[in-house]
Write a structure and sequence with these properties.
The protein is an all-alpha fold. The chain has a domain of about 60 residues: Serine Threonine Protein Phosphatase 5, Tetratricopeptide repeat (Alpha Horseshoe), CATH 1.25.40. Helix content is about 50%, strand content about 0%. The chain contains 13 helices and no strands. Helix 11 packs parallel to helix 13.
Length: about 220
């Protein structure tokens, strides 16, 4: 089983849809297997941002687990599974990420809203070396409009704009690094610190400059 799982992980990383399909057909137990970091094949495909491959795997799964459903944005299934899960809306996946964090990271706004309304703590850190909060993922989301919506949702739910993840980054560092002007404005309106420094000594302004987002200098105190 271990060799098969290793082969599947390699096939997913290499975007080999034919081999992924074959391995899952030959060894159905692989659908629920987890790699050394605790990720199922479906979650792994999602983390690699390979949506077609994730869709291929999803089509073959009768019912995703709670963490997969949160990442996929399957809100009805999340609502069904959340009540009986340890931690409920604060449930933590084997890879250390909570269901709120997973929904936010993958931009699933509706699902994130559901989990927040169910009582999730928006300030809970991931239970792994990243120590990331949902608002960090929101501020760094790849889609600027969705990023803003997610940040607003979390701030309205009581998220702290100055929480720190691994590396000393605050949400404002994330917004600055990704050139998210509207997110940065919203964070500042909620008390985000302009002087917070990452572990390597950079303020959000210095982070924006380092990442080539000079347009944020006026907003961030430049």
């Amino acid at each position: 089983m271990t060799d098969r799982l290793d082969e599947l992980v390699q096939a997913i990383a290499g975007n080999d849809a034919f081999r992924v399909g074959a391995l899952l057909s030959e060894t159905p137990d692989l659908f629920t297997a987890r790699d050394p970091e605790g990720r199922t094949p479906l979650l792994l495909a999602l983390y690699f941002r390979n949506d077609p491959l994730a869709a291929l795997i999803r089509e073959r799964i009768p019912k995703p687990d709670l963490f997969e459903a949160a990442a996929l944005g399957e809100s009805e299934l999340v609502a069904e599974l959340m009540d009986g899960a340890p931690g409920g809306p604060n449930a933590i996946a084997p890879d250390g990420f909570g269901i709120l964090g997973l929904s936010v990271y993958f931009g699933q706004l509706e699902t994130a809203e559901l989990i927040v309304k169910a009582g999730a703590n928006p300030n809970t850190s991931s239970a792994n070396q990243f120590k990331v909060r949902p608002i960090h993922s929101a501020a760094g989301h790849l889609d600027a409009e969705r990023s803003l919506e997610l940040v607003r949702l979390l701030l309205d739910a009581g998220a702290d704009p100055n929480v720190v993840q691994a590396g000393g980054w605050t949400p404002l560092h994330q917004a600055a690094a990704h050139g998210r002007e509207e997110c940065a404005k919203l964070l500042l309106e909620h008390g985000a610190s302009l002087t917070a420094k990452s572990d390597d000594g950079r303020t959000p302004l210095e982070m924006a400059r380092a990442k080539g987002h000079g347009g944020l200098e006026g907003l961030l105190g430049g």
